[in-house]
């Protein structure tokens, strides 16, 4: 399990360098905070430049979530408040959280510093540009101390101007220095900002019956309505048909539409509400639609909306930081309002013209969003690119989808292209995505740094600069250009829609857009570049006809929103909805699939006590570990087919290891056979340290092979006779009352271990109950055979040749009768044509095909069962060498956002070629567990 969180250092002013660190915690689920608290403290100390940062030494490092002290032994990683995106403070309580009981909230609904939600507890708050203001507002047209809002004890609010330069209005009526009432819902305008009060009664009203408590229940004490409630309040049930969005958004005439385009503050509240899904799924009429700002229509703000589905791609141009503020608002809306599982976000921020630190400051907040996690098997930890290599990887993944390699995964992808991407081939790749992407559900959000459009720098200049500097900008079907002295205005322009030459219809914009974008010349008006734009400006075709005020939000706002969304995970697939094979990991550790990342003797003893079964774990399946209980009916023989190098031997080792982890060695024994002898490398010999292995037979020596075959046949016979005896000899007391075993298994429990220690020859057992007890006490025997084909058809001159037949015959008996006798067979073949007629194959209940598809990693396979559809899986790996630290204890490593887009193989957890293998770790832990359990092994076979 991996959790990303932020740890704030003690007594360091917020924002000071090194005062906080983002970390990635890797630990088995259920790990208490105490196991990582020292690691967290070390990470903070390292970020602050070593010791002396006021961090208490030793293990007793107090940690807080907000003001709340966390009990290190009772707070568990992965559970609230220790979920993805959490913020902890070290040594001292953190900043107190806002209190949900506040009677009134002040929302910054629109403007260049939109999104703020301020809880008013009563008394006066001053609003202004100054740091002195209780509600600071980064709006250049707002005075330093602009106006004051006072909440009386009865919850009623009033507002007064504080002698501002540009004045204050409430619902269009100017406000002087004498306080006037400010009712919930009334619009308070100062500078370019719109503020709105929500009273306690509005809040209660907003709570709908399906509101869920916040997902983290932790340090964010907002009383926001849950997201589901939020949407149902506005839309009722989600419209399922995609209706066309009006190209020019009009003020909603229908009051039911009033909340259709939530302002940034409402978006934040929706995110903090923490419900799992928004109802804006792919079929929703407003899916992928975003509000960019507001135009003033008779004093009422009218949303400026662009649908990415209609525009294909959207270009934003203007000076920073307003440009980034607008882009954040757009992305926050998509991440919050569109269904999490339907949307994927990708960031390309590899423009070397800007220092990496600036790019990280702009974008690291995105890293917390669940929509940036790779869900289509992309080779990275986040869908981000901060350098050319990562940009090339991201673009490659996206372009492959244009070529039909869709895979499973989210329906829509929005790619943020922040400035240039570098070499010509990458620029071309972005342009291709801009042209063909929308038809495949891939939309660009192109950001270009340009001067603000002013009388001295016309719109066309902004557009030309944007097209020249940011690839993909020329392909955008709609562009929003920031304008005005301080870039607090914006203009939205659309490319002219043209009829589809094929049908003559003007369908959705990207449909028609594609027609003319794909081939310049297919429409005479559609010349690439700025001609359409110049024409639009000349014709005054901006939409709407006058500038609006931009919605821009701060980095802190965006990070807060993203952290709130971080713990949202895709829900489990519905029954029968398997994951596409491409989504399986390229490699998995068996220990992770076993839930035994820390293979300690205690954990193993607990596992043995917990499951007295023979659990064979194949690896990672579409919905968690793929496993089979060999004591259940219809699970053996297990037969594995696969070409050389497909991972057969490793799979057999994993099966052996998982069986050993599921049952005590005195109750389950492993018999291992390398059918190709010992010349073929390590084979199954590496498993012989597992205390369960009673026999290892490399097929080299005919003498040993014959002895083995005899002893195996003898054991099978003994068990067959015991079984017959246990079913009772007619006429004998008690015999007739016996029930047959419930399945093909011997599940009977031994009543006394002593009774079976002196196990007499089965023929001497005359009493059925005694026979039953004896049978139940027989250890289960699992025979695992690699290179079975080499036994069936030994090479000419092979030393195994004279004796192979006797071994094969004994194995045939197991394939036929083993289930009843608690003897199981697992066999693998590299030459399926040689083994097609073998009983193990013809009777196989579980058939594994490894490497069935081309170009799959070793260990990728499918499990076939008669009459069922095959299940894809990635076999567990046990002979990988992983640094001991990774397996033995949880780790805390600083998060390097700029490296999250690189292939995960470069992370410190990769196999290093030193340290013990997982198999060796497991074997030694099993030995110790067996010792302390007193589980002596008396090999069943001679
Ligand atoms: N599940 C796995 N995950 C990662 N790597 C694997 C996995 N299984 C096998 N490999 C790697 O693939 C290579 C081949 O594996 P293995 O020897 O198990 O294949 P095989 O099918 O038994 O081949 P052969 O028939 O030649 O013996 C080895 O280098 C192994 O480390």
Automatic annotation (TrEMBL):
Pfam families for the chain: FHA (PF00498), FtsK_SpoIIIE (PF01580)
UniProt keywords, alphabetically: ATP-binding, Nucleotide-binding, Phosphoprotein
Domain FtsK: 623-861
GO molecular function: ATP binding; DNA binding
PROSITE patterns recorded: FHA_DOMAIN, FTSK, NACHT
Domain NACHT residue range list: 636-672
Lineage top rank: taxon: Bacteria
Positions annotated to bind ATP: 642-649
Residue ranges, annotated region (Disordered): 205-225, 240-260, 725-747, 855-876
Domain FHA: residue ranges: 125-175
Protein name: FHA domain-containing protein
Organism this protein belongs to: Streptomyces smaragdinus
